[in-house]
Amino acid sequence: QVQLVESGGGLVQAGGSLRLSCAASGSIFSPNTMGWYRQAPGKQRELVAVELSGRSTMYADSVKGRFTISRDNAKNTLYLQMNSLKAEDTAVYYCRLSTSRMTYWGKGTLVTVSS
């Protein structure tokens, strides 16, 4: 089993920054893909950013140039640096890890951006 624990969410003013972390533990198979997703109230969960096992990255158009995904394999931790936050970034942010066998989700961390 794999456990994913997100942290770093909170309340921030528009234009501010936050850094989310996702600590992974357990039997983590490689190669794997880790990413961030978010779900705003009344909306479906959507992709924010993903880092593939080959270190290539992909971002949603809405966050390109503002968010940066990175991972520290030695610490089994995924990060999301969020800058220039907007009210529309308000959501619960989830970490996901996918292998050839399974997909795992964290419980999420709430980000609230006040305008």
Question: What do these coordinates show?
Answer:
With 115 residues, the chain is mostly beta strands. It has strands spanning 2-7, 10-13, 18-26, 33-39, 46-51, 57-59, 67-72, 77-82, 91-98, 103-105, 109-114. Strands 2, 4, 5, 6, 9, 10 and 11 form a 7-stranded mixed β-sheet that branches. Strands 1-3-8-7 form a 4-stranded antiparallel β-sheet, with no helix packed on it. Strand 9 (91-98) and strand 10 form a beta hairpin. The N and C termini lie far apart (40 Å).
Count of alpha/pi helices: 0
Tell me the β content: over 45%
Mean pLDDT across all residues, rounded?
A: 94
> Sheet with the most strands?
7 strands, mixed
Radius of gyration: 13 Å
Anisotropy-based shape: globular
Secondary-structure-derived class? mainly beta
Question: Are there runs of 5+ residues with pLDDT below 50, and where?
Answer: none
**Strand segment count:** 11
Q: What is the N-to-C succession of helices and strands?
A: EEEEEEEEEEE
Query: What is the first-to-last residue Cα distance?
Result: 40 Å
Helix content: under 10%
Defining key terms:
115 residues; mainly beta; seven-stranded mixed sheet
Helix-strand layout with pairing:
Layout: E1 2-7, E2 10-13, E3 18-26, E4 33-39, E5 46-51, E6 57-59, E7 67-72, E8 77-82, E9 91-98, E10 103-105, E11 109-114
Parallel strand pairs: 2-11
Antiparallel strand pairs: 1-3, 3-8, 4-5, 4-9, 5-6, 7-8, 9-10, 9-11
